[in-house]
Amino acid sequence: MSLHAAPPRRPQPLPRLYRWRTNMLQAPLFFLFTGAFGSVSLFASLFEKHGRIQHRIAQSWARACIWVSGSRLTVHGAENLQKHPVAVYAANHTSYMDTPVVFAALPFQFRILAKKELWPIPFIGWHLNRSGQIPIDVDNPRASLSSLTAASKTLRAGMPLFVFPEGGRTPTGHLQPFLNGAAYLAIRAQVPLVPIALSGVYDLLPMGTRHFYPGQLTLTIGEPISTTGLALRQADALTQQLRSAIESLQHPTQP
User: Fold this and answer.
1) CB–CB of 212/205 below 8 Å?
2) DSSP structure class, residue 39
3) 16-250 maps to which CATH number?
4) For residues 142-175, b (16+ Cβ closer than 10 Å) or e, as one string?
5) Sheet with 193-199: strands ordered across
6) pTM of the shown model
7) pLDDT, position 141
8) CB neighbours (10 Å) of residue 237?
9) At 1, is the pLDDT very low, low, confident or very high (cuts 50, 70, 90)?
10) Exposure check for the chain: N or C terminus, fewer CB within 10 A?
11) Choice among 40-49, 139-148, 243-252 with the minimum mean pLDDT
12) Cα torsion angle, 228, 160, 150, 178, sign
């Protein structure tokens, strides 16, 4: 199956009926589900400390959000997901809907390294904080180092980690330059780095719009990249290898 071989395009303005559907139905349901699942997650956090129940709640929230958006999600390369019990998973960042797609697709518990700006958001930020997710301030090197240290401890404790190496959403749908945090963490913990490509999610909810453009969403998992024996000074080269792998997954060679 071809994954958006052509450059991503910003959807044309929705017909009035579609705008009505987003404003009057989809957006209210999205916020309703976010509040409801977030409240249940907060309640669950009072009784269990391992995050398993909260993660299942997050997965249910994510699947509900995709259903509300009117889109369908297909996962390719699922056999690459659990070849290793602990790994750093890294994907391109195209939309606010990337996070629901990732939580809906990955079948195991993990922690996510996400921008600190999400933490003040009611329900979403509360869940992120109580479920052990890790905030990162990409504009503050000292704070970023502290976050990477916390993320390393998470990996050493046996918990997989998910990262958006671009550090923020792409405004065009094309890959941006990658930060080397994902490579740094994988090398430091000596765990594989697993590339993931998201396709169709940019078209669903591009930066700067408030409306859903339903379509086919695809999450493709590539072969894990080994970090065995690599040193931290090789993080830049590993980051470029990761970026190339994700780009290849977005635009696979036709037979």
Assistant:
1) yes
2) H
3) 3.40.1130.10
4) eebeebbeebeebbeeebbbbbbbbbebbeebeb
5) 72-76, 216-221, 193-199, 88-91, 161-163, 111-115, 134-136
6) 0.87
7) 56
8) 12
9) very low
10) C
11) 139-148
12) positive
Integer-rounded Cα radius of gyration of the chain: 18
Two tokens, residue 222 = 């590539």
In angstroms, the Cα distances linking 173 to 75, 178, 192 are 20, 14, 26
15-19 long-range CB contacts below 8 Å, 24 or more apart?
18/211, 19/211
Which is nearest to 11 in space by CA: 22, 1, 2?
Answer: 22
Q: Which amino acid is it at 218?
A: T
197 and 53 Cβ atoms separated by less than 8 Å: no
The position carrying tokens 């094309």 is: 174
Per the CB < 8 A criterion, the answer to whether 112 and 162 are in contact is yes
Expressed in angstroms, the distance from the first to the final Cα of the chain is 11
Backbone dihedral region of 60: left (phi > 0), alpha (psi from -120 to 50 degrees) or beta?
alpha
Alpha-carbon span 22 to 29, nearest angstrom: 10
In DSSP terms, which residues pair with 194 in a beta bridge? Answer: 89
- Per-residue pLDDT band for 235 (boundaries 50, 70, 90) equals very high
- Match 């997954």 to its residue by tokens: 249
